Amino acid sequence: MRSSRSRSLRVPLLAVAAAAVAAFCVGLALGAVSILSATESGGGTLVNTLPLPWLTAQNVGAASVPSPVPATVSGSAGAPTVLGASNQSFVVNAATAGDSSVRWNLSEISAAASVELELTFTLVNVSSGIVTTLVAFVESQSAPPSHTVVFTFYLDEGSGTATLDRTSLVVQECLSVGTCP
To answer: CA 55 to CA 108: how far, in whole Å?
Structure first.
């Protein structure tokens, strides 16, 4: 013979177990995320997380490498490319005029003097499956401009049309000129 006490404990335990199983199933359903790729034509979402107050990502998109081909930005922390007081363009890798590229525009106003930045450019080319990550180093001017200056960076994707799945640019402020993360 069972006591009413064991029956009264069993009902709440069964209810708790049922609730736990239901929560687990809901968690599985919510955790099963499907990411579908879509066609993008040279645009994207700019996400500034803890941005530098003087450097802003303006836009990113598909472009052709201009002619003449801009200067190549430095790949060395010890010898960063010093940014000018007027709009400038750079290539991040070996480039050929007219090739498909990804273009990033950054604007600067009243920068801190002589600050080095590490720029990490990454893109995924869906057509080829190739992931490209390049690191460049720039230094703000010793006498920062009082007007907005735009710096354009091109990453050459070669001739023809490139299908891009994802692009990103991570900007980190270095500890000092020549000392980067």
So the answer is: 5
Taking residues 24-32, report their average pLDDT: 34
Mean pLDDT of 86-114: 91
Phi, psi (deg, nearest 5) at residue 109? -145, 130
| pLDDT per residue as tens digits for the range 41-64 | 444 454 555 567 888 888 888 899
- Look at phi and psi of residue 160 and say left if phi exceeds 0, alpha if psi is from -120 to 50, else beta: left
Question: Is 106 strand, coil or helix?
Answer: strand
Strand partners for 60: 104
Is the overall model pTM greater than 0.85, yes or no?
no
Q: Judging by beta carbons within 10 Å of its beta carbon (0-12, 13-18, 19+), is residue 174 exposed, middle or buried?
A: middle
The 3-class SS string of 55-96 reads: EEEEEEEEEECCCCCCEECCCCCCCCEECCCCCEEEECCCCC
Average pLDDT over residues 114-131: 85
Q: Are 29 and 75 in contact (CB under 8 A)?
A: no
- State the average pLDDT for the chain: 75
- Listed by start position, the domains of the chain span 1-34, 55-173
